# Entry
Amino acid sequence: MNPLPWDGKWYAWRLDREVYKETWDSGIGAQRSGGRWNPPGRRVIYASADPSTAILEVAAHLGFDALDTVAHVLTCFEVRDPSTIKVVQPEDVPNPNWLIPTQPSPNQQLFAEKLLAQHPFVLIPSAVTRHSWNLLVSCDLAADQFTLVSQERFGLDTRLV
# Structure
C-alpha cells in the first residue's frame, strides 16, 4: 500500500487545543511525556495523513466530549520534499501488537526513536484506525523542511457526542 500522495505534494494534519495554536510545531508535549512512538526527551510532532485520522487520534485520548466543549484548531502543513519521509509498513514493525490500541512498550518507543534519529519524517500506521497513517516529525531533523498551510477552528459534528 502506498500512503504517499499521487500529485507530488504531501500534507499532514493535527488537531490541538486552541490555546496551543501557536506552538503546534514545538513537539514539547511529546518531549515531556513521551508518546506511542517516542520516549520522553525527544521533541516529536505527531500528525496524521488526513484530517479524519487526526480527529480520531485526539478523540481516542480525550473523548468526543472534550472536542465538543474545548476549542480546538485543525492545522495543515506541507512536507516540502516527500522523498524525506521514511515509510514504515505494518510488516516492518517487529511486534504487530504495537499497531493496536495498547499501552506502548519501551521497545516500541526505542524502535521509533532510532528512526527519528535518522529521518526527519516517519510515516507509520495508525493504531486508532486500521489503514490510516500517522506522521512523526523529528523536530531535531525536520527544521525548515515543512511549511504551515492553514489553521482553522475545529467544530465537532454534534451527532458524535
Remarks:
- Residues 10-155 form one domain.
- The chain has four helices and seven strands.
- The two ends are 33 Å apart (CA to CA).
